[in-house]
Amino acid sequence: MSAGASATGTNAIAIGTNSNAPGSRSIAIGVDTIASGHNAVALGTGSVANRDNTVSVGRHGNERQIVHVARGTQGTDAVNVDQLNLAMSNATAYTNQRIGDLQQSITDTARDAYSGVAAATALTMIPDVDRDKVLSIGVGGAVYKGHRAVALGGTARISDNLKVRAGVAMSAGGNTVGVGMSWQW
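Structure tokens predicted for Coiled stalk of trimeric autotransporter adhesin family protein (185 residues):
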């Protein structure tokens, strides 16, 4: 103990001029330190440990760094800045990768959708068989938002009341095949 040191808490220790340890099982080490929390430790001049079960190396407005801290290895260990920076770097890389994957997925979906619209439009552009003809083969083409498609198809008049149509369209998003039949009366 030093001049003005006071360890009034049960099993408390106060070392340093004007150090004060009123908390039970508290330790105040350094000039003008206060360890008022129970089972609290105040280290260094002017440090205040006013919460239970804490270690303080400073006080509000007079904070300090703890330096030369080894990497934490257990769940309740402190981490150092290197560990924190590595964790942040890994989290950022993971997030960037996931955002990149999501963006690629959106781009792929848009390509497929736009190509699909172009393919469907190209299929509808194939002219129908004329009323006095029995077979029509044609091509159609379309562009939708820069995505191109070409289609090849035909219509056959099976009877005066029955027509059959089939076609295939090709685009960057894939191929589209369609068939249809109609009865007319």
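The two ends are 113 Å apart (CA to CA).
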